[in-house]
Every structure is written in structure tokens, then in C-alpha cells.
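STRUCTURE:
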């Protein structure tokens, strides 16, 4: 029961003559760029089927020292990765609920939108896990109906991380918006 890493950090480092980490390089619209981290230290994290749900913490050590403690979440919902070209205002990315969305708000003025079909009386809970995972985003969530009317919003719940809870008033499409405040 647990998590394994392959190759191990020691195996990965021993096969690399030098380690140089350079931050992301952005030469066109920043929000559309992929992170450009070196791939020579790539590893795969395997999560056991019976691993407990919730945050997990990891770090890597080398002869040069250790990385900062970082977190990821083991969950049991289907996951989608943000499609940066399809989450801009007016171009929401289609998702089905329940779902875990992995995305980013970058640059700070970025606003992401996700659209899903809802039913009258359906209960919905949307949580952002940013501060809980060590990130600086101060997120705001807005839930809007198909006419753009505000149904619910949330700013801070767990520190800077919002939790939006709503009962959908009618059948139809709903748009969940997330942005930094």
C-alpha cells in the first residue's frame, strides 16, 4: 500500500553528468506555453490502487542537497488537465461532474472557465486546493448559469482556498469560473 517512484531519484541523478534547472522560458503568449523543464530527470510516480486518499508529500535528494517538500493529491475522481486554449472567457472547457481539474492560473490575470450539464436540485461542491498544496494563488470561484447569471461564489474557506457549495436551480449548462483576486 503506497507510492513508488521509478527511476529512484538516486538512479536518475547517477545517469546525468550535470544537473541544471532553468525556469520556464516563454517567447509567445505566456498562458499558452508549456512548462519547459529539463526532461533528463523525469520520473514516474506509481500510486497503489489501495493508497489512502488525500495529500501526499515528496522531495528529491541529490549530492547537491534536497528539493523543497512538495505535495500532490491522491483522489478517486476522474481527472482532466486544463486545456489552456479552451478555458479562456467565452471558450469554456467541457467537463462532466464529478471531476478533478488540474490546471493553473497564469499569468495572474488569467480566468479559466469550465462548462458542465447540471440538473435542477443537484448539489454541487467545488474546492480549490492551492494554498493547501503550497501555492500562492488566492482563488475566487464563480458559478454561473447559461444566461451568465451568478448562482454562487466563494472566495476564502481554507485560508485562501475557496469552497463553493450550491444547489442547482434548473436543468441546463453551468459555467464554473476560477481566477486570482
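SEQUENCE:
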Amino acid at each position: 500500500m503506497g507510492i513508488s517512484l521509478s527511476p529512484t531519484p538516486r538512479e536518475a541523478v547517477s545517469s546525468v553528468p550535470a544537473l541544471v534547472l532553468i525556469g520556464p522560458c516563454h517567447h509567445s503568449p505566456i498562458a499558452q506555453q508549456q512548462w519547459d523543464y529539463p526532461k533528463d530527470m523525469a520520473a514516474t510516480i506509481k500510486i497503489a490502487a489501495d493508497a489512502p486518499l488525500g495529500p501526499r508529500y515528496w522531495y528529491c535528494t541529490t549530492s547537491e542537497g534536497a528539493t523543497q517538500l512538495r505535495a500532490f493529491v491522491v483522489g478517486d475522481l476522474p481527472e482532466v488537465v486544463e486545456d489552456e486554449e479552451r478555458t479562456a472567457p467565452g471558450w469554456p472547457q467541457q467537463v462532466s461532474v464529478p471531476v478533478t481539474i488540474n490546471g493553473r492560473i497564469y499569468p495572474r490575470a488569467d480566468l479559466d472557465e469550465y462548462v458542465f450539464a447540471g440538473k435542477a436540485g443537484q448539489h454541487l461542491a467545488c474546492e480549490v486546493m492551492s494554498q493547501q498544496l503550497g501555492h500562492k494563488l488566492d482563488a475566487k470561484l464563480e458559478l454561473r448559469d447559461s444566461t451568465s447569471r451568478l448562482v454562487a461564489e466563494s472566495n476564502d474557506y481554507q485560508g485562501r482556498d475557496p469552497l463553493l457549495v450550491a444547489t442547482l436551480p434548473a436543468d441546463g449548462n453551468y459555467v464554473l469560473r476560477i481566477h486570482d483576486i
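REMARK: The CA atoms of residues 13 and 148 lie 51 Å apart.
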